[in-house]
Specification:
alpha+beta, Alpha-Beta Plaits
């Protein structure tokens, strides 16, 4: 006797009796995989949105770290240049006046001072700084014994001159083989706190600058519970950074008790200074839940409609159309969104409606896949824009410091291969701090943009590069250009600024002016490489400043005023 009739009778015993219950069970089996796929996809959508938020804050933290590193590089470079100035290195008359002028032109720096080997301040930009004892300061001791290859960055320290917490950058000063002392610069932490104004962050995000060495809160871009200058050694970002000293993300409660999605990144080679950007976790979760809820409601609604239509199709032949629906649903559950149910001519009107509903559901899935593809394209575009931001200064549209450094190395190697000269013009806006004080920071930004336009208009070749070097200082790189050509370009720059005729009541001539330092180098295999060109142009720039501003100075000689 064949076992198959017995098996069929056993299976029939498990099935519900009556057509309606069987039809209900059949539709549940047919549409179940599709509905489950929608639910899982909706949940996955929320997870991907949270992951995208984590990626975003990490990218922003890296961008912020690069911007802050530019500020520290500016302070270090300025100290190295000042260490070569005889009035500062020899602690001669006029040292304090020179240092005050330098600080006035660099808003990121709060004060500069020269310390003798015995730890006593010889001269400084801040009144009353001379005579203070800094011999017990760790940064002074470390700088005195360092080889000078890297500047020393202190932890958060209470300044004896100002009485406020600050950080110091220190470099040793040598006269020949002798240690002549230490040159220090205290950083303007308020500039750090304004980091949030220079990044694309919204009102629900926080920007923090932390020191992992002692847990100091150096700056904070939003008014949270802890203030800049306080200690937060158990900050969750610092704990994550100490466990893995590189960029990354973490979800944790901030010092104000609010849970945030943090992205963090260290300043390159800066002894544990960390930039952290926090995004409110509740906002991200709410957006993810909203998106998942919309998808789930649409899926449940469509499934309910399909059940309702099928429930009404009892007076016609059902098995063939239902089998077709089951096959199509299985194909959709397997990922084939092009599947559709073939009802045939004998199908009831209600079943044809069910087939149409199924087709609309599959179309929505296809459209949803298209939206996901569009979102991926949008994310790629955002990544492309981030790559541009890494190379471009956001205010002026010129190349930024990082792009300039890359192109300087490239052009130096090309000039060495071709045996052609390489010219660098360092440009600085005269009395820029006074301009900001008189007209306000928006006018200062407009001033920098006007200077950028003048620099860009002076370029004549595709290989020429104008970049923002830092603050109100710019750099113009001219490959295959000798001294005569460099002076022509410098004259074009000054002519363009004179034509702009920007009023500046705080300057000597009543209008905004520029000081330019020109250096021309024939690259060779020896020497300090590109750094020698930068140092020569910078020295010429400060010579132009000391000579009265609004003029051009060439490294190694004096150019008559125009």
């Amino acid at each position: 006797m064949s076992p198959f009739p017995t098996a069929r009778r056993m299976l029939a015993g498990f099935l519900p009796r009556g057509l309606w219950p069987r039809l209900f069970l059949l539709m549940a089996l047919a549409t179940g995989p599709m509905l489950a796929g929608l639910v899982l996809s909706a949940v996955d959508d929320g997870r991907r949105l949270v992951d995208a938020a984590r990626d975003q804050v990490v990218q922003l933290a890296r961008l912020a770290a690069e911007q802050q590193d530019d500020s520290l590089q500016e302070a270090s470079h300025l100290l190295r240049v000042l260490a070569k100035v005889p009035a500062v290195r020899g602690m001669q008359d006029g040292c304090e006046t020179l240092l005050r002028d330098v600080v006035a032109d660099h808003p990121r720096i709060e004060a500069v001072a020269m310390i003798r080997p015995d730890g006593i301040v010889a001269c400084g930009s801040r009144p009353g700084a001379a005579g203070l004892d800094a011999g017990d300061r760790p940064y002074f001791r470390e700088a005195m014994v360092s080889d000078g290859s890297r500047a020393v960055l202190s932890s958060l320290t209470l300044s004896r001159a100002s009485g406020r917490p600050t950080m110091f950058v220190a470099v040793p000063v040598r006269v020949g083989a002798l240690r002549a002392g230490v040159l220090i610069a205290s950083l303007n932490l308020q500039w750090f706190a304004r980091l949030g104004d220079r990044l694309p962050v919204g009102s629900t995000r926080s920007v923090e600058v932390l020191d992992s060495r002692d847990g100091a809160v150096l700056a904070r871009a939003q008014d949270l519970t802890a203030q800049a200058g306080e200690m937060a050694p158990d900050h969750p970002v610092l704990q994550a950074y100490r466990a893995s000293p590189s960029s990354g993300s973490i979800v944790a409660a901030d010092v104000d008790g609010v849970s945030r999605i943090f992205g963090f990144a260290p300043l390159p080679g800066r002894g544990g200074i960390v930039i952290a950007i926090g995004l409110l976790e509740s906002k991200v979760r709410m957006a993810a839940d909203t998106r998942s809820g919309v998808v789930l409601i649409a899926a449940v609604g469509a499934a309910g409609f399909a059940f309702f239509v099928t429930w009404m199709a009892a007076d016609r032949v059902l098995l063939g159309p239902i089998r077709s629906l089951a096959v199509a649903a299985h194909q959709v559950g397997s990922g084939d969104m092009s599947a559709h149910a073939r009802m045939g001519r004998g199908a009831a009107r209600e079943l044809r409606q069910l087939g149409a509903s199924f087709a609309r559901m599959a179309r929505r899935l296809r459209e949803r896949e298209g939206r996901i593809t569009a979102m991926q394209a949008e994310l790629e575009e955002m990544n492309r824009q981030l790559r541009i931001l890494v190379r471009q200064d956001g205010l002026t549209g010129l190349g930024n410091r990082r792009h300039f450094d890359d192109m300087l190395g490239t052009e130096y190697r090309r000039a060495m291969r071709m045996g052609t000269p390489l010219t660098l013009i360092m440009v600085d806006v005269d009395r820029f701090k006074a301009f900001n004080d008189l007209y306000g920071h928006p006018a200062g930004d407009a001033c920098l943009q006007a200077v950028a336009r003048a620099l860009a208009a002076s370029l004549r070749r595709p290989a020429d590069l104008a970049a923002r070097y830092g603050g109100e200082e710019f750099a113009v790189l001219l490959p295959s250009t000798d001294e005569a050509g460099a002076l022509v370009s410098a004259a074009r720059i000054q002519d363009a600024m004179r034509a702009a005729a920007l009023p500046h009541a705080g300057s000597e001539g009543g209008f905004l002016s520029l000081s330019l330092g020109v250096a021309v180098l024939m690259p060779s295999g020896g020497g300090d490489g590109p750094a020698a060109l930068v140092e020569a142009a910078d020295t010429a720039l400060y010579a132009a400043k000391r000579a009265g501003r609004n003029q051009v100075q060439v490294a190694g000689r004096t150019v008559p005023a125009a």
